[in-house]
Amino acid sequence: MTLSTRKLGSQGLQVSAIGLGCMGMSQSYGPADEAESIATLHRAIELGCTFLDTAEVYGAYANEELLGRALKGRRAEVTIATKFGFRIENGRQVGTERDSRPAHIREALEGSLKRLGTDHVDLYYQHRVDPAVPMEDVAGTIGQLVAEGKVRFFGLSEAGAANISRAHAVHPVSALQSEYSLWERNLEPDVIPALKELGIGLVPFAPLGRGFLTGDVKRAEEYPDTDHRHRDPRYQGENFDANVAAAAAVRDIADARGAKPGQIAIAWLLARGPEFGIDIVPIPGTKRRTYLEENVAAAEIKLDATEMLGLDMALAPDKVSGPRYTERAMSMVDRYRASAR
Questions:
Q1: Active-site entry in 58, 180, 223, 325
Q2: Active site residue 58
Q3: Which of 14, 30, 207, 248 has the highest local Cβ count within 10 Å?
Q4: Residues 73-110 pLDDT 10s
């Protein structure tokens, strides 16, 4: 199959119906395998999965460099999203420190363009809201970069409703990237209504619950220290046991359908867009062709109302045990900071 395209936001951005999160090719999920990662990127293009998500901090820099090598001579076939906003020194992210000063945004973009081997970025996200820089300054800078032809569309990542509105008032925001899935529903009370009102698309990362919704999971301590799941609260202790029980509903529907659990989780997300009246384009991450092909095939699955309701109830927020991040990581999420004040 070849994926169809769909709009993302109200400014004319068109992307593949499912994207590819590229972070795991360079960090967080075990050792890198460049040959298989490049083969996966090339297979994604063949399947029409051409919305590729990266960031300067992934690696750091290594993931953009990987895409640059893989896409040499094929830039016109893909839509590239990357991100700015963390402080990086000597090739390493500096803790939770952010830097969205206008001069730094321009510096970060030039670095990304060089590593990606391109003269423009299709979708440029602020990776995390910088409390030291007014959102109006960030949006104004992106507006200038759009006018200069170096950026096509503006996005935000993990921003709350207030900052989304502030940014959009200065320069239109096409997409919000945030964690959203059967596993994590934190956007529903206020962010999704704001996206609908403003005509902004949603790009859910970790749509498979960092692998938990695939059913192929182990306890946190069984992963190496270099793997993100080693520190994930939802993979630990009693949380793990409760979450395995909750996620069984995904496996049961998958078994009845002759599908994979991860495909059901993606199909649920694709169905939420029309339900909410917004554009939703999930970006499941993988560095292997086998999983890529499984994820793309999820676009063929149409869940019925009974299946949707069963999943909603089984994985309601009160059924998922443990916070989605450590306290340190949550401190960088704009909605969390706003609610904590």
A1: 58
A2: yes
A3: 207
A4: 999 999 999 999 999 998 888 878 999 999 999 999 99
